[in-house]
Specification:
The protein is of the alpha/beta class and 127 residues long. It has one domain: Response regulator (Rossmann fold), CATH 3.40.50.2300. Helix content is 42%, strand content 17%. It has helices at residues 12-24, 36-46, 63-74, 89-93, 108-119; strands at residues 4-8, 28-29, 50-54, 78-82, 99-103. It has a five-stranded parallel beta sheet with strand order 2-1-3-4-5, sandwiched between helices. Helix 2 runs parallel beside helix 3 (63-74). The longest helix has 13 residues, at 12-24. The radius of gyration is 13 Å and the shape is globular.
Length: 127
């Protein structure tokens, strides 16, 4: 059974690119959540194996706040994606769930390696 990934991204083009990659890599996913509040609700409904979380969301709840809530409720691991390298992010994120932090622009091998590490799976090469 394919692992399920919840994408949380408020930039539609980036979200569509991530959905295409997840499909190519054989993952199950639903349409992306665009806000922290939606991410928390959808994590409870969909029970994903992993959340790809944009740190800076355009709505009230940040990606870090949403991740803390999802972690506390469901203990789901995260890959945080941000255009900014925040030196104090480790302090902001501090939570018991496993996570990896990637900065944009990331390359596909970097993202693939992060997913494999978090889920402890091997992704076959894209043909």
């Amino acid at each position: 059974m394919a692992k399920k990934i919840l994408i949380v991204e408020d930039q539609i083009v980036t979200a569509m690119d991530l959905m295409e990659l997840m499909a190519d890599w054989g993952y199950d996913f639903a349409p992306p959540a665009v806000s922290g509040e939606e991410a928390v609700r959808r994590a409870g409904e969909e029970k994903p194996d992993l959340v790809l979380m944009d740190v800076s969301l355009a709505f009230e709840m940040s990606g870090v706040e949403a991740a803390r809530e999802i972690c506390a409720r469901y203990n789901i691991p995260f890959i945080f994606i941000s255009a900014y390298l925040e030196e104090d992010l480790a302090e902001k994120i501090e939570m018991p769930c496993r996570y990896i932090y990637l900065t944009k622009p990331y390359d596909l091998e970097q993202l693939k390696g992060a997913i494999e590490t978090i889920l402890k799976v091997k992704i076959p090469p894209v043909k």
